[in-house]
Structures are given as C-alpha cells and as structure tokens.
Design brief:
In chain A, about 0% of the residues lie in helices and about 45% in strands. Chain A has no helices and eleven strands. The mean pLDDT of chain A is about 90. The chains are: A mainly beta, B mainly beta.
Chain lengths: ~110, ~110
Amino acid sequence: AQRVTQPEKLLSVFKGAPVELKCNYSYSGSPELFWYVQYSRQRLQLLLRHISRESIKGFTADLNKGETSFHLKKPFAQEEDSAMYYCALRDSGAGSYQLTFGKGTKLSVIP
Amino acid sequence: DVKVTQSSRYLVKRTGEKVFLECVQDMDHENMFWYRQDPGLGLRLIYFSYDVKMKEKGDIPEGYSVSREKKERFSLILESASTNQTSMYLCASSGGRGRSPLHFGNGTRLTVT
C-alpha cells in the first residue's frame, strides 16, 4: 500500500528564513509526487509536481528515490506563504487515478 | 480555467437524514473524486469515478454512496447521516485518464447534529 508521511503538523519560520517542508513516501512502484497548497479560505490547488521540475512561487522540490523523499524548499519565506501544504503520491502507471495525500503541514511565516 | 463547483458551502443536517452533496465540473473531465478533509488526518478518498455510471471505492467508503449519471456531475450521498460524518468534503476532477493534476472545488462543510 502506498503511504505519504509529513512528519510536521506545524512549522513556524521567520520571514526571510529558509523553509523546508518534509515529505516521505512508501511505495513499491514508480511514483509521481505532488505538492498541493491551501491558502486561508481558498480551494486546494496544485503547487508543483516532480515531473515538471519547475519552481513555483520560489518553491522547489526534488524527488529522491534513494531516500524516498520529496521535500519542499524555499530559500526565503514570505508572509504570503503561510498556508496548509499537502504532499501527495500517485502511481505513474497507466490507468492509475488515485492520489494519496499526507496529513498536511501548516506553515506559519512570522513577520 | 477549470471550474469545479460544489453546490453548498455550508450544510447542517440532523442525524439519520439523507444528505446529498453535489459537484459539477465544466472541463469535460473523465475523472471525479470525493475526499473528506479533517484536521490531523489530511485528505482521505471516499469514492471516485473514471467514467459515467462508473464508480470505485476509495479508502473510506463506509456510510457513503455516489452517483455519476452525467459526465459533469458527481454526487456524494450519505444515506443516514451520523455525527462522525461531520467534516469538510472536497470534490475534485481530472482529465486524461488520470494523468493530469486534480482540480478541487471550494468544499462543503457539513455539520451533523
């Protein structure tokens, strides 16, 4: 069974400090990893996916298959980054629809 | 831009009532999903559908059923609501045989008293 673990329920950092939101996964197949974000009173939305290899809003995430991790990083946190972040996994094989989510990490950026 | 619309933002129902949560998407997506979101538990998949009249159980289907009579609409049904079904319910859709990311609705906060 696939599993996504986000070890921190809450992460508080000061504005301008680096941010790292941890995500580890357990899956025997070939995974596709995502980060979703939910800002206050907004809908859950895709932040980035590992196959895109892009930086969104200054965030990056690298899939490390050896450590089965997909940590989300940003060098300098901004107040507007305060939100709930979810890591998610999907089997990259054909016909796979299910996305398994972690329990989420609430990021609070202190001014 | 993909729009996923959930008919109600807030609902209050009594224990034992039959509850319908409606979701409509406007991008001709094949796949639709119902999740519930609870603090400390994250998102858990209840049911999903990859085609009209098709449905698959997710991780926590007990106490729920779904209906997909039209491609754009996916309904979640609580046959007899219970207090432990008080939660935020999120509908999502995706296209391309599951290869594209999920697009979420705003959510329905259901309270069962």
